[in-house]
Records
---
Amino acid sequence: MAYETLIVEIEDYVALIRLNRPDALNALNAKLLDELGDALAAADANDKVRCIVLTGSEKAFAAGADIKEMSEKSFVDVFTSDLFGANTEPMLRCRKPIIAAVAGYALGGGCELAMMCDFIIAADTAKFGQPEINLGVVAGIGGTQRLTRFVGKAKSMDMHLTGRFMDAAEAERSGLVSRVVPAAKLLPEAMAAARKITEKSALATMAVKEAVNRSYETTLREGLLFERRLFHALFATEDQKEGMSAFLEKRQPQFRDR
Ligand code: CAA
């Protein structure tokens, strides 16, 4: 399917989704978010996709929500349309792992979009920020909640109140990103991580997503029980038998998602 604001390629069971509004540094307008929702839903439903990589350009993953598009909107406009509510839901509904590969600016909604992915691999050129304060607003796609959980209150407050940017090294040190690589290696690294995930049992990768994400929603006791029940449930699968037999027989497992 052809998109106006995205380029989607599927290879070796990985869907690579590139944000593609170069003139606006991939600012998130309604069209882009709608198309991204469609692309994620399509990837989630496609048997030829087992992992998704979301990326931008060398200069910007995304420089935030589209300021031109929203500047004249009223409270009634944004409240009644639930701006950034419904059109970011597909990201949360996607059951396949999503890796954000971030180079350049990931600001405002761009940083929030990266944080909605399952993990972030950053180029050494990446810059993260929540500069909405400079526009007289606050983050609107989860920045105050997710960034605080990832990097803690002190850094989150600093970022949201001053609007300063965090470089890749600080982002890795703070727990916002999982790895930092030279810019030229960003996509190879993200695609290699994605391909590694495609080799696993999809039942287990879905369970990992559910369990890790649950840790943000519940108490430790409930989370531990949720995890243990998922662990128990996977003993009902052929992939558990295959994975453990393969280990004992010193061979690679052949998972069948059953
Ligand atoms: N929305 C719309 N257009 C944007 C944009 C945005 N968020 N960010 C950049 N652009 C556009 C610029 O207007 C410019 O377009 P024109 O050439 O037509 O003027 C083009 O992209 C290139 O940008 P710059 O000339 O500004 O590039 P630069 O290299 O000098 O600066 C930058 C790069 C520091 C990222 C700067 O563009 C910038 O500060 N952008 C805005 C960042 C921001 O405030 N993001 C938060 C948005 S609000 C939000 O996201 C709310 C939310 O949580 C939901």
---
Amino acid sequence: MQPTDTAAWKALTTLAAERQLTLRDLFADDPERGQKYAAEGAGWYLDYSKQRLDRAILNALLDLARECGVEERRDAMLRGEKINVTEGRAVLHTALRAPRDADIRADGQNVVPQVHAVLDRMADFARQVRSGEWRGFTGEPIHAVVNIGIGGSDLGPVMAYEALEHYSDRNLTVRFVSNVDGSDFAEKVRDLDPASTLFIVSSKTFTTLETMTNAHTARRWLLDALGDEAAVARHFVAVSTNADEVRQFGIDTANMFEFWDWVGGRYSLDSAIGLSLTIAIGPEHFREFLDGMHDMDRHFASAPLEQNLPVLMALTGIWNQNFLGACSLAVLPYSQYLRSFPAYLQQLDMESNGKHVTLSGAEVGYDTGPIVWGQAGTNGQHAFYQLIHQGTRLIPCDFIGFARSLTPLPAGEGQTHQDLLMANVFAQSEALAFGKTPQQVRGDGVPETLVPHKTFAGNRPSSTLLARDLTPRSLGALIALYEHKVFVQGAVWDINSFDQWGVELGKVLAQRIAPELSGEQDLHHDSSTNALIRWYRRER
Ligand code: F6P
């Protein structure tokens, strides 16, 4: 059954047509709305009162989740059932952050002991690198760690490393190379000493073109300097599910940190893919990060739907996308440390829910995943917020903020910055919701010709997520919150959020075209592609 066939979807369609709700009226009619449309879980406070919905709409959305079997599907995922039907795999990233004594089964086998065995090896290795016990080939301790990976093997580690930089060992340089554009590698290593550099080659499949190309270049760079194949063992470790490919590359599988096919790439930051992060912030902080994810997992698994943060965020998103006509979601973290969070979420959300067929392969008759974008505030305010406030499109926003600053500025200054930062969060969501009427504009003495220009229609929906401070634990909970939000939306839309066939075609075609660029063979593409390749051949 498609979601559009449910009674709740039909009720929501009627409600959307009948009720032209405005946030001004909703707040005027209920002075307690701000407290009523809020929920808490795993250290996060969610205010969704500035979404354009009332109790009837919220109840219908909750009915939709029930009718679409969100709870059953959630429980099936947590039990290790093979809900990734197109790849025949379980979806068990929640097992990666489960406590040591948990029992979570894939194919009848408890996976938690193997998860903790790898975590223990990661912790041990991280301690050796951080303490200087792990030596490079010439006896130097490691001063720089370079993660080579792309997609889920890069975006999560980069985002979390930046987010938790405050907790990182400042004696270590940590870099991330992802792009097959050679300038990425060249710029990231130009000031590094090969004798004290450790490469972590992170790839679930260990076949990804970008990562393998960069890994081979890194190996050449190292060997050019150190001149001995034996150096590879001291300067390269691998994170992968594919031991054969790791061996073939020349990395001793003793230096490989394993994960499993039931971990999707975009859900893998909490697996060994988090090795660079573990080295940077230390194993104790990494455990706190996993504990934060687990806090949110427990909240997601047990909180009633009407108080369940991922469910509420998913359902308000569905209301905005499927009934109010929005097609994107702006994610606006008011934290410079979270500057890469929107980029990370782009993969998490868009690779998961950018799907056009249901689980059974039928064409969907409704919109699925939104376009996710955003930037850290307040910077974004001076770039694209104009369009959110006064443009013609409806752009729902997620604001994210913290009560406390981590910043060691001169005495007292840190919290001043934080107050100004947070004043902007509250001001933006207030302005988006309530705008400024022509009467108010006139009341400011604005000349009549400028009144339309200075009028803000308002009624633009947003949610606000707040936590006390940015810690490994609160970051972990935030990431798990979005993972589960994406899951709930996928469950309602009846799509497979855990495959990514759409990325494959471009990969296959690139492999075919690569040798044609340096050759002279006849070209058999369309006339545009042929002309582009000929141009490149001439100019390269
Ligand atoms: O972009 C497609 C994709 O398969 C992602 O899902 C994945 O995170 C990324 O490529 C990298 O894959 P791998 O970790 O196997 O190198």
---
Amino acid sequence: EKGGYDHFMLKEIYEQPKSIADCLRGRLDAKSGRLVLGGLRDYMNKFQNAERIIITACGTSWHAGLVAEYLFEEFARVPVEVEYASEFRYRNPVVGEKDFIIAISQSGETADTLAAIELAKSKGATIFGVCNVVGSSIPRTTHAGSYTHAGPEIGVASTKAFTAQISVLAMMALKLGYQRGTLPENKYIQLLHELEAIPGKVEQALKTNDAIKYIAEEYKDVRNALYLGRGYNFPVALEGALKLKEISYIHAEGYPAAEMKHGPIALIDEEMPVFFIATKDSSYEKVVSNIQEVKARKGKVIAVVTEGDTQVKALADHVIEIPETHEAFAPLVAVVPLQLLSYHIAVMRGCNVDQPRNLAKSVTVE
Ligand code: F6R
């Protein structure tokens, strides 16, 4: 049942070219400019006229929500808030009929996310679910939704569900931007092509596995790690850190790279590995400066870079090369090496990768 892999987590990481393609299939056809999300059809008016989008979720799904904030704001110019469901539900939030709520959940059973939905619903908001498990509680509670179609995710650490969530949210953002007129047709078509190319690029990114094993060997005994990224790659830094801590029990923190100088920089010494997501995008030069700041303090730098990179390569201790993508879709590819890295480190440390201590696949208690 693990399809020849040692663990479900590894199998699920390797399934991503297919799970993302499954998610896009029947919905996106770049050549004909077709983009259809069945679940949105009856609610497109509400979506288009929403004054605000509120995304609510927990854990990895919340990280997918953060990526979506950048996508919706860039392409559709709608204000977005991303809320931990557990905070939103207890805060007496300002929410009403003009708000479009997107609840993201792999399991569809997360208690806090369900409660956040009930609360927003009682205030008259429209609720849209992005879930993986068909027929679970959240899709039954929301007004509408789109499944991620990633297939069953057994490993407790979420991997393929995350990339499928971002894929659905990216389609929603492109659709919304096009309908609202904030995304011109030529750019929209170009982005559809870019998104359609992602499964192939994830396939390429998986080929970094051997290089990553080597890096894992070198850093498996560290006690702390820092993950830094900017823009679309900031949520990837958070997700990379979460993956490492949940399965390897190494203390890891993710930060926007620019926040480093406001505190975490104090932690940097020759013992501290700093994982940068430094792909070629609009904040690349800024990230290069942040890498220089770490090297000046003798930190170890491991960077995920775009193929052909030279600047970061000259500075970093190790680089992991991934194919070039439009920056908006970089998280889908850049997260893959970080998933593999956490996996290998956890295996080398003898951890129970598929069932890490203290964690459950569905968090049905608050
Ligand atoms: C991380 C992880 C958790 C879940 C979180 C939300 O690998 O598994 O952080 O992402 O518990 O779960 P869902 O998406 O099922 O609502």
